[in-house]
Amino acid sequence: MKLELKYKTPLEWAVQAVDGIDEFLQDHADAERKVSNMCMSFIAKYPNRHEIIDELTQIAVEELLHFKQVYKLIQARGNQLSPIFHKDPYMKLLMPIFRSDRDLLFMDRLIVASIAELRGSERFGLIGKVAKDTNIAKFYTNLHLHANED
User: For the chain, which domains are there?
Assistant: First the structure.
């Protein structure tokens, strides 16, 4: 089953994101760390879910690699990681709709994570289109293309 987004992000969003690319890179670095941590958390909380442990491990490693790549972009721009780890306001708004049953919560978290990854990939493609910095454009285009190979 392939998920599709109901609403497409307007190109203007990417133009604004590129105008504030340093903040965008910080947010992206945070997101990569959060997803990697979430995968490891799933493994710790649901060790009986043998069918997804290999996949979650692979995703966790891949997200850490993306973090490393984003961190290099941050450093190349003469910046450092922010000491403040911001919570995602979008995810915070979704938390109250998660069901409390252990198995249903697991499913809700997987669904929301899948949608967030899909939205992220879409937006990475847009950043790749509008970024004037060739390193940033290439990185985000490649992230978008890689995410859509599966």
Answer: 11-147 (1.20.1260.10)
> Could you write out the three-class secondary structure of the chain?
CCCCCCCCCCHHHHHHHHHCHHHHHHHHHHHHHHHHHHHHHHHHHCCCCHHHHHHHHHHHHHHHHHHHHHHHHHHHCCCCCCCCCCCCHHHHHHHHHCCCCHHHHHHHHHHHHHHHHHHHHHHHHHHHHHCCCHHHHHHHHHHHHHHCCC
In whole angstroms, what is the distance from residue 92 CA to residue 110 CA? 15
CB atoms within 10 A of CB 131: 21
Res 147: pLDDT = 79
pTM of the model: 0.90
